[in-house]
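Is it possible to get an amino acid sequence alongside its tokenized fold?
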Amino acid sequence: PELSEEPPAEMVKMTKSKTFQAYLPNCHRTYSCIHCRAHLANHDELISKASFFSFSMQSFQGSQGRAYLFNSVVNVGCGPAEERVLLTGLHAVADIYCENCKTTLGWKYEHAFESSQKYKEGKFIIELAHMIKDNGWE
């Protein structure tokens, strides 16, 4: 049999598209990287917003302005932990970055040295300057 250089007619041309490690469901409000639109977090994982002040919610401040605290995130890489003195005291934090475009987004709380701050351990700060709202926001 002879080899043909033309692909069979039923083959579909593939186009290059972005692929992320994880996609969040379209039925939920989500946050994405403002630079590349990689999914970052589901709204249900949001713990506290810096834009609302009340006795039960703490304000979060990143190096570039307001920030949100999340229980979990996706498509994010983590740098090495280091000790930093933040507004709420000494913490061991690791910078987090978008796995797709490598932009630094915020940090992960690895360890809190003050007992009142222990609830932050294992949580993630993402600065508003690096996020965009997707899916179902009005």
In short: Residues 6-18, 50-58 have pLDDT under 50 and may be disordered. The two ends are 60 Å apart (CA to CA). Residues 30-51+65-134 form a domain with the Metal Binding Protein, Guanine Nucleotide Exchange Factor; Chain A fold (CATH 2.170.150.20).
